[in-house]
Amino acid sequence: SCIYYMDLNHYTILFVEDEDDIRENYAFFLRARLGCNVIEAKDGQEALNVFFQKKCDIILTDISMPNIDGLALAKAIRKEKVGIPIVFLTAYSDNDKLLEALQLQTTSYLLKPVSREKIMQALQKAIEIIKIQKTHNENCLWITKTAIYCFEEKEYRLNGKIVKLTEYEGKLLHFLCINKNIQLSSIDIFSEVWRDSDQEFKPDLIRTLIKKIRKKLPEGSLENIYGGYYRLRIQK
Fold it and tell me: Is pLDDT at 83 greater than 90 in this prediction?
């Protein structure tokens, strides 16, 4: 069905498979029939090298491979790029491996031999995930590769998990994120965070709250600047 051809030429697929004939056959189909940009790798080690050097949007990988297998590859990639779609291919139905794959937020898990239709469906699902993430990210701020704050939901996630914040921690983080990379004084922070309160300004109040929120943020992201200023540093 034509629906599966949608947008595939806008994305780069890292295709990892140790059997040359299978890899070349699928890669040819992806390029020639679907117009995909495909980067091939013969094992997990080669795939990791490629991943760190080039922009990859979707990972399509075999599970059983020499050097670094597909599961170890996926774990390493997830540490760097939490939301990237990962599609696993495997020649056998191993429940332990399936369970481990599912815990890695697998997009699809395909049993070999995989039909072209199944691959197209898996890729389309991956693209839908990317589009949802893009919409989501426009309303969110990546503090680091593993930490994200979403403004509308007032929700902070670290390594994919929601971090619980107290009312004042939440207000502070929201204010820091809105003013990312900007120096904020204790008075700036107090005026915003305690805006609806009768609380009197006390420097210790700010210092204590800063200390608490810093423990929940990635190391080095909340800076102290000489003169009593603070800044949420966003990695470009």
Answer: no
